[in-house]
Each structure stands twice: as C-alpha cells, then as structure tokens.
Amino acid sequence: MLFNLLAPLGDEIIFFNLFRYLTFRSGAAVITALVVCFVVGPSFIAWLKAKQGEGQPIRTDGPEHHLITKAGTPTMGGFLILLSIAVSTLLWADLTNAFVWIVLFVTVGFGAIGFADDYLKLTKRNSKGLRSRTKFLLQIAIGLIAAFVIVEVSPEHLRTHLAIPVFKEVLIDLGWFFVALAVFVMVGASNAVNLTDGLDGLAIVPVMIAAGCFAFIAYLVGNTVFSDYLQIQYVAGTGELAVFCGALVGASLGFLWFNAPPAMVFMGDTGSLSCGGALGGIAVITKHELVLAIIGGLFVLETVSVIVQVASFKLTGKRVFRMAPLHHHFEEKGWAEPTIVIRFWIIAMILALAGLSTLKLR
Question: Residue 128's pLDDT is what?
Fold first, then answer.
C-alpha cells in the first residue's frame, strides 16, 4: 500500500524514492511483521490460554512424555503468523502485483483449513480434527485455483514449463499437467511442514530459512540483469514476492520468540499448513519447484520417514523407525528435545545452502 501511495511521489520528494526499492521494502516487511508479533503476541497468547483451558489435545500415539511436558500449551498460534504476514505484506508490497495476491490467497486459504482443523481438535478434545480426506480435498481446491491463475498470469513461454536446476537451457513443457504439479508442490509443502511441526521451534526456523532463501530467489528471478547473469528463467513481477518472503521471515522470528523451548504456544495446523503452502506457491511462481525440495529438504526427510514407516509396516509388519516422523525416532532413542531441534536446524541450513548453490551451478 505504501508503495502504491508514496512511490509515485518520489520525483517530487526524494525521500519517497526509498519506497521504489525492493530491498528497502523487503527489510521493512521483516521489521513490521516482527513488531506485530511482539506487540500482539503476549495478549493474544493470554487470550488463547483463557479460551482453550487445557490447551491443545496431545496425541496419544506420540512420545509418552509429551502427555506431560506439552499439556496445557495453547494452539492456533499460527494465527499470529498469518496476521503479521498479512499486515506487513499489505503495507509494503505492490498491491497491483498479481503474484502477491496469489500467494496471500494460498497462505490465508490453507491457514483457514488449519484453523478449522485446530478448532475441531479443541472443541472435540481429541487430536483428530478435520477428516484427512476433507482437509486434503480443500487443499487441492485452493491449490487448483491458485495454479490456474499462476498459469494465466505467468509469461507465455514459461506458463506450463518446468525448469531443471543446474541445466540452464532445460525447460520441460508439461502442458496442463503442470497444474497438477503445481497443486502437488503447494499441498505437499503444506503437509510436509505440518508433519515437521512436532517439537518446540522445530518447524518455524526451517520455514524462516526457506523464506529467506526464496526472498533472494524471487529478487533474482524478477531482475533481468541478475537472471541473465545467472542464466535462470526471468519471470517479470516475481521480485515483489521478496517483500512477502520478508514478511514471512519477520513473522517466523517473532513467533519463535514465543515458540522457543519450552513453547508458550503452538502454531498448530493454522500456522504449519499456511507456511508450507506459501513456500510451495512461491516456488511454483518463481519456477524453482525442484529447488524447494532441496532448500526444504528437512521437510522432505520428515515426510519420507512417515511414508517409509507406513509402507514398511503394511508390507512387512515391521517398523523402520522407532517412531515417525523422524524427530520422534530420535526422541525415542533418548535425544533431548533441544538437541534434536538445534541439529535439525543445522541440517536445514546446510540444505538451504545446497539449494542456493544451484543458482550458480549452471
């Protein structure tokens, strides 16, 4: 909003030229989202505690000690993330940019699904929430709408193409199958973050790392000079997503303040589904869907651990891991929660650096 109101005045008042710079607005988005979290967070968490009483229902099929250590902690903290992202993005992004609205639509839409799931868990006092099939179909519906709009507003020569990392000239035209791929990326990323969100602070830092990486990628992809130098696909308008990513980084930092062990609040599906969906949407728009699988490799590992565990048990009756997702396996091996969380953060950072290296390896 500030860009649309003040940037045109830059020719008359030199100070307003600042609002034309993506780097300035992205940095401002980080700070704004962080401030919103710090200002709203304490009273919001106090309100959640008063309303939820016993807090989030703890899964009985998870580690036994969670029934004691996690009891009474309120959930739906993801609403704080959504609020911070929305306020910051609407304040600092170019609101005439279609990509910004698409990503906001996916973020809020997936967040609404997560909110419904969290609400049902609280009112029914169990960890079931929405039926898996219902949740999945709603995610697909939102993903389909977003995918069709992305195809329509993307450059014609890239609309249905998949870019392959490292190979600079390889573009695979998937036709309308690209829509299915885009939905898979958004829904898959959303649920992968959801599976990772099992320990205090475990999911939010990798989300923040991935958002920071995609802020950089969006800026490069939307800049003709840098995209030409790096020989990556130029997609006009994607630079504005750096502002959204900045808002996500700031919101993640702010939420981590309250989610650091021992957590004062859980993000719940409201936060995990929305954050994952946002990363998926940005990856599709910037033509870096495959790079997301590297940068968000920790989310992939957690998801694969669940798939392997279920498949192994159904086929052989034996479990590969002591418990899935993967972070619970290490809990069962006796690792302390902070140890698991910090080591997984380190892995997330290493994978993010590996993903960013594909920008230069051409």
Answer: 74
Residue 15 lies in a domain: no
Strand partners, 162: 172
In a domain, 16, yes or no: no
- Among 224, 263, 241, 228, smallest CA distance to 359 is for 228
Work out the end-to-end distance of the chain between its first and last CA atoms, rounded to an integer number of angstroms.
37
Has residue 243 been placed in a domain?
yes
- Range(s) of the domain holding residue 170: 25-357
Is the CB of residue 243 less than 8 Å from the CB of residue 92?
yes
The stretch 153-167 carries a mean pLDDT of 91
pLDDT digits (tens, 9 = 90+) for 55-66: 666 665 566 556
The string of pLDDT tens digits covering residues 277-316 is 999 999 999 999 999 999 999 999 999 999 999 999 999 9
Residue 210 neighbours by CB under 8 Å, 6+ apart: 279, 292, 295, 296, 348, 352
| pLDDT at residue 104 tops 60 | yes
CA distance 171 to 157: 10
Nearest to 118 by CA among 194, 7, 31: 194
Nearest to 284 by CA among 192, 166, 201, 187: 187
Question: For the chain, what is the domain count?
Answer: 1
Rounded-to-integer distance, Cα 258 and Cα 222, Å: 34
**Cis, bond preceding 206 (omega within 30 deg of 0):** no
- Are the CB atoms for 41 and 257 separated by under 8 Å? yes
Q: Is residue 4 part of a domain?
A: no
Stated pTM of the model: 0.94
pLDDT tens sequence across 114-149: 999 999 888 876 667 788 899 999 999 999 999 999
